[in-house]
Design goal:
By secondary structure, this protein is an alpha+beta fold. About 40% of the residues lie in helices and about 25% in strands. It has 4 helices and 6 strands; from the N terminus they run ββββααββαα. Bound molecules: zinc ion.
Length: about 120
Amino acid sequence: MCYNNTKIISQIKEGSLILCECGLYTFSYNNLLFEFSKRELQGFKNYLSKISISEWEKKCNCTENCRKIPIPTNQGNLLLLFNKSEFENMKTLFFPKENKKNIFLKFNQISEEFSKN
Ligand SMILES: [Zn+2]
C-alpha cells in the first residue's frame, strides 16, 4: 500500500475500507488493519456473507457481548473474534446499506442462472 490517490469506499466511526491507486484495499476496524488484493477482498466478503451469527450464538450461552464470531487470518494460529454488534457493524464496511438492493439483485440473478442449468 502506497497510500497514493486513496478512495474511501466506506467509513464508519470504528474504521474504514479504502482503495489505493496501486489496487490494494485497506480495511481498518478499531485496532485491526488488513490489506487485501481485489481477489482477497472478494474472498473475505464471501466469507463474511456466509457466516451465520445465530449458529455461533448457539455455541455459547454467555452474555450477548461475548466475542464468539471468529474470523480466520492468514496466520493460522491467529483468529479475530467479534461479538454480534461488532460483527454487524464491521460488515457494513463491506456491504454498505445503499448497495444492499444491488447485492440482493445480483444474488437472485445468480441463483436464477443456476436453476436454469
Ligand atoms: Zn498503494
